# Entry
Amino acid sequence: MYYQSELHRLEGELRLRLDALDEQRAEMSFRRALEIAKQQQAKSWELRAATSLARLWGEQGRRAEAHDLLAPVYGWFAEGFDTADLKEAVALLSELV
# Structure
């Protein structure tokens, strides 16, 4: 299923919104989303999943890990920098430095 990665990412976002203490299960959802996106070679879904996981890690004080996760995914893109996903990713990267 093409949208499976995005469904896992959204599950993680929902877990955080419904119960901010459910970070472990949210992280598992984000990691699964990343894994599926990589398997599908779906860079847009990978960017979204990496952004969600990096944001969570940044909030947990794991800023270096978050940056190291997101930077290479963001760096893969050569165009589309005016899209919401890439704008969000670059803004998060600047917060993580």
About this structure: The chain has a mean pLDDT of 96.
